[in-house]
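DM from R.C. (forwarded with permission)

"hey, sorry to bug you on a friday — could you get me a structure for this? deadline for the figure draft is monday and I only need the backbone to look sensible"
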Amino acid sequence: MAGELATARCEACGPGSPQVTPDEQRRFAAEIPEWQVFEEDGERRLRRVFTFPDFARALAFTDRIGAIAEQEGHHPALLTEWGKVAVTWWTHSIGGLHKNDFIMAAKTDAVWKQEPARTPA
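My reply, with the result:
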């Protein structure tokens, strides 16, 4: 499965779509090791914080993540601050994690790898 998530496409899902199983979560998480699974408001979510040398670069990264979110029709929570961007993926309609969230986390990592002005997390 190595590298498959970043090239996969999100599938349409909605209420009634299955959340990832614990086994799927472990397999998918292995491909995005810097992301944390956490629970908020009773829902499992994925989060990673990316750091930058200034606000302008953090904002530009936010814009790039917004563009891929629009392409895939799946949108994250983005918190842009001076020198950092927190990206959180989960599927609102199912109240937790779907394979799409892991796909989008991998796509976010792919954008990050292309970032010329990134700083170590």
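R.C.: lifesaver. Residues 19-113 form a domain with the Gyrase A; domain 2 fold (CATH 3.30.1360.20).
me: no worries. Helices lie at 4-7, 22-31, 55-72, 99-113.
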